[in-house]
User: Fold this.
Amino acid sequence: MIVPRIGKKPTIQRLTSGSGTYTTPAGVFRLVIRMAGGGGGGGGGGTAGATNGTVGTASTFGGTLLVANGGEPGRITNDQGGNGGTVTVNAPAVTVVALTGGKGQGGATSSGVALSLNGGPGGHNLFAGGGAQGPGSSPGGAGIPNTGGGAAGGSSMVATGVDAGSGGGAGGYIEAIIDAPNATYAYVIGPGGAGGNAGTSGTVGGLGGSGVIIVEEHYN
Assistant:
């Protein structure tokens, strides 16, 4: 009986922070890339002095070959939250999945009644990871690192005329195939956006989840 030759099993490299150069191992004929940009920071809660979060940073692979943009920040009012990051896939990469990140949710608002308000949850992408809505008087939940999840907005304490912060959007998500890959590719892992400052009778927004790039290497 002739036993067919079984090639080397695929290997995986996880790029979780910073920037650098990815080197394709010898014998690899195909790369499958899964990646996300950084999540947007949650908006701060409260009244005077509250600020918006900041935008998440894009994750890139091969310069402009694959770009997963960061999520937009949550804001200081209940405006529906930050939009998710957009994505770009350029040839010769082939798109499997290319999705804009999920939108963050708006925070609660008070009009003349003394209430403790929850901040809006952060947005998700296919890695999930959005920051959870905390109870009133708690800071916004952070997005989970290396998912690109958006952060939750800051809440408010019991007071009148206050707003809870809205959630940040998630980083965009890409899954793509690169056949006959180059020897090297520059990459950047996008950090999550910072949370907004707390205002009077409020709490800070959460930190957006950092991005990630997962490289699956297939051999001849």
Summary: Confidence is low (pLDDT under 50) at residues 1-5.
